[in-house]
Amino acid sequence: MSTISLRQSHKKTPAEMRTMIRQLAAKLEEKYQLKAHWLNDDEVEVQRAGVKGRISLVPSEVRVEIKLGLMMRAFKSTLETEISRAMAEKLA
Q: For the whole model, what pTM was predicted?
């Protein structure tokens, strides 16, 4: 199993962060068919066959932890780059 682990600091309000996470989740669903499910106000679970992860909002930081199954390992670099870029753009 391969893992994507990203952290990005920010100075946004919780409401701004939730909006950004909704946008990121929508983009991941559109491009990679990852379904997003809010677990609570600060955590979103994303999953599909071969992928399971969590996006967590903590004070001044966003954490992304995604585990990729064997068939999805080929997409690790692409997913990691896209998520990292989106986070940097939205949280700058």
A: 0.85
pLDDT tens figures, 51-81: 999 999 888 899 999 999 998 899 899 989 9
Q: Order of strands, edge to edge, in the sheet holding 2-9?
A: 2-9, 61-68, 51-58, 43-48, 35-40
H or E element at residue 55 = strand 51-58
User: Other C-beta atoms within 10 Å of 75: how many?
Assistant: 16
Gap between the Cα atoms of 80 and 6, Å rounded: 8
Amino acid symbol at 36: A
- Strand-pairing partners, residue 5, are 65
Torsional sign, CA 65, 29, 61, 18: negative
β-bridge pairing 35-40 and 2-9: unpaired
